[in-house]
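Quarterly update, task 2.4: guanosine-5'-monophosphate-bound model.
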Amino acid sequence: MATIFSRIICGEIPSYKVAEDENYYAFLDINPLAEGHTLVVPKKEVDYIFDLDDETLSGMIIFAKKVAQKLKEKIACKRVAVVVLGLEVPHAHIHLIPINSESDVDFRKPKLTLSPERFAQISAMLQE
Ligand code: 5GP
C-alpha cells in the first residue's frame, strides 16, 4: 500500500505545498513545531533515508538546501534545522524547521495549531 506521503505527492491527499521538482516534493508538516516546518520527500518511495541510492539521496539534500534557503528568507529565524527521524511515516523525509534556539527542535513539545488559512498563507509565501 502507498505511504501517506506517496498519496500526498500524487495529490490524492491534500497538502500545503512548498516546492516540487521531478524527483522531490516539499510540503508543510501538518503538526508543526514552528511556522514553516517543512517535510522534504523523494517521490521514490523508500522507507529509510540511508537505503536511498546515492543519486537520490544527494539530490534530496540539494533540493532541501534550496527549500531551507527559501525558509530562511521568508521566516524570521536564526537557522533552519535539519532533522531526520522517520519513526512515524515509512517514507524517507527530512524535517526543515525554522529555529531560534536548540529547544525549538524538541519533538516532545506541543505542536502549533494553525488554521487552514494560515497554512495556506505560509505555503503561498514560500512559493513566491
Ligand atoms: P517522523 O516519521 O519523522 O517521526 O514524523 C512524520 C511527520 O510527518 C510528523 O511530523 C507528522 O506531523 C507528519 N505527518 C504525518 N502525516 C501527515 C500528513 O498527512 N500530512 C502532513 N502534512 N504531515 C504529516
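Highlight for this quarter: The two ends are 34 Å apart (CA to CA).
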